[in-house]
């Protein structure tokens, strides 16, 4: 009986470890294509803009695809507004007023910001909104909203 209980305990431990490893793999980071970049095309760094303005973004060395698309070497944009620290690299990028998702592979958006100084930065996410390994991020730019 003791042998049966010991074996059952061992099987339970192995099954639990297997499930944890499987869960960790589901958030495993996607390798970034070598040389892939993301950039903010407009507005220019230091630009003065109205309260509503268009932001255009682009990629090089990687293709755009909607979130969930399994195609290798693809991702989609995330725009960070007034974000000081990049999101955790092993978790999906948050979705809130400061972290905008473009999961349909969009390359531009209209945004409205309060008057003052603001920062904008892009990061590409993989099919699961997780940053690539290494992260593909743009230069952070500053805009002055009048």
Tell me what you see in this structure:
The chain is α+β, with helices and mostly antiparallel strands. It has a single domain, classed as Immunoglobulin-like (Sandwich). 17% of the residues lie in helices and 35% in strands. It is built from one helix and nine strands; from the N terminus they run H-E-E-E-E-E-E-E-E-E. The protein has one helix spanning 2-26, and strands at residues 37-42, 48-49, 52-60, 63-64, 74-81, 99-102, 108-112, 116-125, 141-145. The strands form two sheets. Strands 2, 4, 5, 6, 8 and 9 form a six-stranded mixed beta sheet that branches. Strands 1-3-7 form a three-stranded antiparallel beta sheet, with no helix packed on it. The longest helix has 25 residues, at 2-26. The chain is elongated, with a radius of gyration of 20 Å. The chain starts with a helix and ends with a strand. Mean pLDDT is 88; it is low at 8-26.
Low-confidence stretches: 8-26
Order of helices and strands: HEEEEEEEEE
Structural class: alpha+beta
Percent helix among the residues? Answer: 10-25%
Q: Could you name the CATH homologous superfamily?
A: Immunoglobulins
């Amino acid at each position: 009986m003791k042998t049966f209980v010991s074996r059952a305990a061992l099987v339970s431990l192995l099954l639990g470890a297997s499930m944890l490893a499987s869960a960790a793999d589901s958030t495993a980071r996607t390798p970034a294509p070598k040389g892939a970049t993301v950039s903010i095309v407009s507005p220019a760094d230091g630009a003065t803009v109205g309260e509503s303005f268009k932001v255009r973004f682009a990629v090089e060395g990687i293709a755009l695809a909607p979130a969930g698309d399994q195609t290798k070497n693809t991702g989609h944009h995330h725009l960070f507004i007034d974000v000081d620290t990049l999101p955790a690299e092993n978790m999906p990028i948050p979705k809130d007023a400061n972290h905008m998702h473009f999961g349909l592979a969009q390359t531009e958006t209209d945004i409205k910001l309060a008057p003052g100084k603001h920062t904008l930065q892009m990061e590409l996410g993989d099919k699961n909104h997780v940053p690539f390994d290494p992260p593909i991020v743009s230069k952070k730019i500053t805009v002055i909203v009048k």
